[in-house]
Amino acid sequence: MKQFRWIHVLLVAVAGLAGPTALAGDAAAGKGLYPVCTACHGPTGQGNQAMNAPKLAGQETWYLIKQMQLFQTDARGTAPGDMQGMQMGAMAKGPQLKGDEALANLAAYVATFPDEPPALTVTGDVEKGKALYAVCAACHGDKAQGIEAMAGPRLAGQNDWYLVSQIKKFKAGQRGYHDSDHGGRQMRPMVATLTDDQSINDVVAYINTLIE
User: Fold this and answer.
1) For 64-71, which contacts have Cβ atoms below 8 Å and span 24 or more sequence positions?
2) Tens digit of pLDDT for each residue in 154-186?
């Protein structure tokens, strides 16, 4: 528990680096930008495991915009071995997506998608996962609802296979490696508390129980 308290203090100290609240966007304008996303993320943003593309529906707009900005500035998707990230980085740099207004419009359109619960694919020890999640709650919330002030995205309702893959990317240094990715950098020491594949599955199995 001392480790968890120390981590909480650290996260509070860097909370101011999370960045400003996302701009409001025009969903109607964003609809015309989304077709390029459909092949991987699906027509209503439900995600596609075959394409390693996460669910977008239900995610907070501020987080969607921030991740697009990271891809556009090579702060995400340029690490060796991150083939999916490199693919997304190329898509994010499309000329139609340049500028904060375009990203806000796209995120606003994604926000209109129905937030349907995903199919569950990850199994683990939920009770062990609940204990492990204590270190995650400071940034992601006790219900994994996400906390913008802590740069923690919503986890509940995300594809569980994607959560597993991203935890492993953080552990491998394929995410959170760039100085401008403050949220990603503060995530790096957090995943160190998940020492093996079983612990990753356990915490994701617990997050699955938080889907409303």
Assistant:
1) 64/103, 64/106, 64/107, 64/110, 65/22, 65/23, 65/100, 65/103, 65/104, 65/107, 66/19, 66/22, 66/151, 66/183, 68/92, 68/97, 68/103, 68/106, 68/107, 69/103, 70/178, 70/180, 70/181, 70/184
2) 999 999 999 999 999 999 999 999 999 999 999
